[in-house]
Q: What sequence folds into this?
């Protein structure tokens, strides 16, 4: 290699070493080892509110009678609930159906309309579980003939969600510390976190269950407990 060639090679090498790209490459540290773990947290609580679906189903030979009869009975039920102390804001129409009733004929004959059916269903939020049995009994005595569901819930679900998330994070960190120790390393940083929260599963009393209580002196209610769960996926940095 002659002196001119050597000089040009050295100059090019020097320019590369002092270029921004080379400086950035030299300055960029390598990423530490990463440990990925999942954590789960659960919290149980007693419900403190409930939502009842109360319906009035009316059948009649003609449409007008079915509609008017249903409206009259549904109105009587709602007025009775309000008079019993249920705030009007806690009563909301959920469904309204009006349909003809048919009598099944043979294949060669068109089905005939034999009457009409109207159904009006409202959801009623109860903020005191001690009132659930009383409200169900009152609705049935006032003209309701359908209790399609009874769902229990909690008023402050956000507080319980945070508790479940905290438990999930603590679970993930414990797993990370145990795994890191087994590898002869330690957790030195946090790369990323993702979470999923699962709301309370509905505790529902079915229509059949409630119907069996209609003739009881007082409808028995057993709220039990509710569970909320949370899951986190966390990526930690480990020591070298």
A:
């Amino acid at each position: 290699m002659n002196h001119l060639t050597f000089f040009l090679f050295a100059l090019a090498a020097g320019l590369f070493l002092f270029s921004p790209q080379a400086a950035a490459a030299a300055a960029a540290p390598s990423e530490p080892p990463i440990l990925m773990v999942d954590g789960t947290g659960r919290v149980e609580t007693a419900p403190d509110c409930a939502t009842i679906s109360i319906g009035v189903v009316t059948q009649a030979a003609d449409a007008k009678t079915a509609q008017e009869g249903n409206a009259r009975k549904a109105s009587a039920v709602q007025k009775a609930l309000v008079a019993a102390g249920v705030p009007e804001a806690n009563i909301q129409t959920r469904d309204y159906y009006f349909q003809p009733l048919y009598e099944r004929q043979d294949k060669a004959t068109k089905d005939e309309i034999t009457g009409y059916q109207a159904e009006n269903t409202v959801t009623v939020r109860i903020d005191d579980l001690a009132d659930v049995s009383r409200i169900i009994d009152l609705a049935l005595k006032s003209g309701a003939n359908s209790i399609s569901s009874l769902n229990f819930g909690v008023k402050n679900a956000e507080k319980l969600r945070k508790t479940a998330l905290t438990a999930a994070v603590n679970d993930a960190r414990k797993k990370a510390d145990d795994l890191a120790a087994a590898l002869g390393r330690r957790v030195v940083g946090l790369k990323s976190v993702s979470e999923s929260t699962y709301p309370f599963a509905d505790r529902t009393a079915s229509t059949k269950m409630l119907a069996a209580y209609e003739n009881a002196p007082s409808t028995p209610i057993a709220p039990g407990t509710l569970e909320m769960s949370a899951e986190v996926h966390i990526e930690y940095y480990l020591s070298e």
